[in-house]
Amino acid sequence: MKLQFTIEGGNFSNAGHAASEIKKMLKQLGIEARCIRNIVIAMYEAEVNVVAHAFEGQILVDIETDKITTEIIDKGPGIPDIELAMQEGYSTASKKVREMGFGAGMGLPNIKKNTDEFYIESTVNSGTTLKMINYF
Amino acid sequence: MKVSELVELLDLQVISGEKGLDREISGAYVSDLLSDVMGNALEDQVWITLQVHQNVMAIASLKDLAAVILVKGLQPHQSTIAHSKEEQIPLLSSSDSTFDLSGKLYELLKEKG
CATH code at B76? Predict the structure, then answer.
């Protein structure tokens, strides 16, 4: 089953929409609660990253019998140093974003912790693509 | 303990989400960092925070939290209230500071479980 969502950069009011839809769907499919929790955390963080940092993004979700694969593809500033961005506590979020309680430098580490496979590719001044796989 | 009992014992204002007042709580989580809550709060916990924007309710819903308590008499944004109603998750407010409220809640949960 394939699904697609659009993320608008800067629009925090819709952040979490895709994660919420996927959560409902996986519940209906009878996927184990722990597994759903992990996927939802990773997907929410990825959505927020696009809203906080990029101009726009697409989420492509593919649910198969044994796993869920999510790709988050954004157009944005990209990440110059991925290793640094993966470090807990490192963030380039704006003051406004931090005041909302985001931008604590926990997003990417949270995603990594909650996925079975996680890949990240980024080109400066072009965008970032995340791919994450969770097995049921 | 149910959310409704908390409201009574801690003298909380119910702002919205009354439909969720019957829910049993498993404990509480205190944080104003949304990623921290996203990563570490557990199902059926009550979340104590000073954040008042609607992403709080998105997280409460995604994490299946029992209720959100705003501290220091802070009032939520309209969109936060709307989201709380939609998700039927109680949005509560306390005049206490985070420290005082957490202390009281900790005592209550220790006594009553």
Answer: 3.40.1390.20
- Contact between B79 and A13 using a beta-carbon 8 Å cutoff: yes
Q: Would you state the CATH architecture of domain A2-135? A: 2-Layer Sandwich (3.30)
Distance from CA of A80 to the nearest CA of B (A): 22
Alpha helices in B1-113 (DSSP H): 3-9, 34-40, 55-62, 78-87, 98-112
Q: Complex ipTM, two decimals?
A: 0.87
Please calculate the CA angle A109-A43-B69 and round it to the nearest 5 degrees.
85
Are B62 and A106 an interchain contact pair (Cβ–Cβ within 8 Å)? no
Q: What would the pLDDT profile of B16-52 be if each residue is shown by its tens digit?
A: 999 999 999 999 999 999 999 999 999 999 999 999 9
Token look-up 């409704």 returns B4
- For chain A, what are the domain ranges? 2-135
Residue range A50-65, pLDDT digits in tens: 999 999 999 999 999 9
Cross-chain residue pair B34–A100, CB shorter than 8 Å: yes
Query: Nearest C-alpha of chain A: how many angstroms from B25?
Result: 18
- Write down the pLDDT at residue B113: 61
